[in-house]
């Protein structure tokens, strides 16, 4: 038995332990698994519709008994338990222990969240087909004579592997029909038959009755022409009168009886003519019916017919007496027998002189020995199973190189019998080509007889015929080994796009062969290929039979862990490509073995993550799976697992909850007393943004239809999400808000006019303090979850708690209508318009209410009244012109996060994201004190590609790549030679600050806009990687926002207006500190101290510059460690490390001062006694640059010595020193950008 090669995390289990685990899983199942590991690759007789609630009602009742018993334990009426009591039963430090990942943002494909509304939704587009009846028509030997000759007398003619001459005429029809019947039933056991032997016209009337009974199923008409007269016009013959005579029976009459869908097999000379006859016949029938009432046309479309013909229009079947008279029929129904026979006749004809060849030989060699139990050990037994799989592999692989995916799916994936017949028809093409005969078909298949893979089929047959060993050698292992090696080498050498469909199809067959040694390698290679790209997954989807792969996944037969994980990845990748694959899973598949492993402590986290992701794809469709997971026992296991789960595993568990309950609420009996919801609420502070989004998505399922206090509790616990950096988190929080609004709209409508006006605040800390009715410090509150829970509890104890939360919701929805992310903003606008319509619908005094909204409790209270209009539909869009349309607000509120989650799991193969690593912050080199006697500028590069003057310039901190912003709100990024690399327009607001952050060898453009938001953009991308509101004042959109960054430092400091300094961690994507500086005027810049990222300096228009120690707790006045003032309007300030940590600042009146951070001394440097328009200072060299009205830009020393005066750069230009390199770049109003090397020259040359 194959061992489970489980790579557990430190568990040290042996293969015997794992086999026992598998046995226990099998014993726990109520019924045996019906999907064997070595399932026939053709076994795809699907249910066609998947499991619907109606289909599985009975199954769910049986399998849900255990769940119901578990639920009865908690069936008592649940009572309200205080939060203080619930908090004692959870792990309050789960969030604080969570790992912070390395910087990771969503991709461009994930930016527009509305695009996911129809993705990864199963809609059962897979429609299986079935052939229900076979009509077999051949002539009775009594009704025709056999031509005698000396050559033909040497052997007997046979049909259906039955000797025509030596079989009694009364037994021949029965034997022949049984032969056909048994061969057909090997492909479809439930197939019905209509046997016609030299039929009269009356016999055909039974076809009409069968069609009446089977109006939509395919009917097969199989015509063997031997013994009938030859037909060259595509018509068949029937027996007429006595003595028997054959008369023409027009094909059109057959078509009227059979209608469609239909299939025809013509095993007769000149059979290619039947295709035109059928095509013209169906066309005539359709035309005649269309002349009447088209709506009364019976049956399906008249082009839904298939046909297989033994020859072309002018060809006859081979006359070799050793060949059967029904060559095509024998090939379609006995492909291996015919392959061996034709190979013998071609290469070993003289070695089989027996007069009873081939009937006796084939019967004795291929069938009798197969039935014996190897009584004689030295006697070879023909490996029928191996040859059948090998033939299937070879033919399917050959066909995949010739047919389009749609045609391949139609012929080889819809109907098992049709697939088998067409597969063997391709073999007939190959076997008949040696006789220069070309079988034809509808749809027309190309000639595939020259494909190189036929060599492998011939080699296997030759090996069997020539081998004298009693132990059967391997006929396929070398073939599979070569396939795997070729595939892996092409992948390794970057030639994945050159992999042919035939090679891929062969690889898909290997995991189902008897040779298990190749299974793990083949599965791993297949998974690697599928995970590499979307195009690869599409090719794999056309090559696999999904039900077989999934059956292998849930099978209790042990397999190696590498193979199991590869199989999980492959299944997930196919689900991501098309969720309709769930409908190809067989209805009887037992999923219990899969979900039993979800909390198995012996499995590693990666494997359990993949299992949870697969269950997430299934749980919406399979009701019995939902019943299994909807139990008290499951939620207790979930609660115990959550605190110790890694981020990837946690995310998969939470998404599984969301998919289980995306259309309903979780019963409180399952979670309330065990405090599962409180444990999840703790994870709102998780350090991984994707986990926070998953937590919010799952928590929305815990909200109840008639429990406003519980819903208010959940909403208050999730409040911190409103200021999250990750837009996916905010989107999920908005869904909670809308769900609360939808559930309690009556409370909103009753209380919206009672909202009290509260003074406006602009720091996030003060807003949350007002919401929670207590002073809190941010982010200290997230490290003391019991205190936060206690605060939430105190809010809920107020008499107007629900009213209070309603006011929060109305404010927050309005807050999100100003969100920088378009999906969040658009959804919030819809929600606001919906609520406005709700309140206006029955309003009588709306004109008296205020029209503005101010934080923290500014309300949507400009209207009042009540209505029954469903909240899920918007009667007013952003555009008033479409106000009459009804647009769903959230068509599927799990679609976005589920699609993003699935993509991440597939990309990482279930691995957790890399953890944060301490990267040393890159600081400007301190060269001591450097004197620069003279300097000059030498042009190094220039461009005019921007076409307009830049508003800001930002250098890459380590090289000369440069970013520019423009008045048209665009950002351009140029390489070192000012060649355009990428540009983007992130929003419609003025860009007020621009920086380039180098982190982990990647450049990120940090753009601040006047509406109080920050965007992070990676050059080359189409959208922002992250965008969030960094200032709480969303009313004013014309106050500049500023940010400070440092190379390889994952924290961004921001300031705006008279708000405080906020510190954001872009790895955890959270606000991690806030310092109130509201006593100051409007901010004009923020930067880190040149020698330390622990101190940030904020400059204000008034001329004040304040330093804050970011290591001091938020809200403490002791955080202010320095301040100085120019007593005039500040133009700019910057840091310099020439001789220490120095800050140079210049006022509008021309005063330039230097602040020494170490000695805390302020010295005057330069006094221009005239207005200064712009100013900058080099961080390393003692160089200052000034621009004054109507004068050229000058470069001076800190003492005021003019080192250089530009000749062509006018005063209205903007300029920027590179932080470490001696480079100065200008942007002029005409759009010309020029970059100069600053050459330090003692002689001024």
Helices and strands in order, then pairings?
Blueprint (H helix, E strand, L loop, with lengths): L14 H14 L28 H7 L1 H9 L9 H4 L7 H4 L33 E8 L19 E2 L2 E2 L8 H14 L6 E6 L7 H9 L4 E7 L11 E5 L4 E5 L1 H8 L3 E6 L5 H18 L14 E5 L17 H7 L1 H13 L11 H13 L12 H17 L4 H8 L3 H17 L7 E3 L11 H13 L10 H16 L8 H9 L9 H14 L1 H10 L2 H9 L6 H17 L14 H4 L9 H14 L4 H7 L2 H10 L5 H14 L7 H4 L4 H7 L6 H11 L8 H10 L9 H17 L1 H7 L12 H9 L12 H12 L4 H16 L5 H20 L31 E2 L12 E2 L6 H14 L26 E9 L8 E4 L6 E4 L4 E5 L5 E6 L5 E9 L2 E8 L3 E5 L8 E4 L11 E4 L6 E6 L4 E5 L4 E6 L7 E7 L2 E9 L3 E6 L10 E6 L4 E7 L5 E6 L3 E6 L4 E7 L6 E4 L6 E4 L6 E3 L5 E4 L8 E4 L5 E5 L5 E8 L5
Parallel strand pairs: 1-4, 1-5, 5-8, 8-9
Antiparallel strand pairs: 2-3, 6-7, 9-10, 11-12, 13-40, 14-15, 15-16, 16-17, 18-19, 19-20, 20-21, 22-23, 23-24, 24-25, 26-27, 27-28, 28-29, 30-31, 31-32, 32-33, 34-35, 35-36, 36-37, 38-39, 39-40
Helix pairs in contact: 2-25, 8-9, 10-11, 10-15, 11-15, 13-15, 13-16, 13-18, 17-18, 17-19, 19-20, 19-22, 21-22, 22-24, 22-38, 24-27, 27-30, 27-38, 30-32, 31-32, 31-35, 32-36, 32-37, 36-37
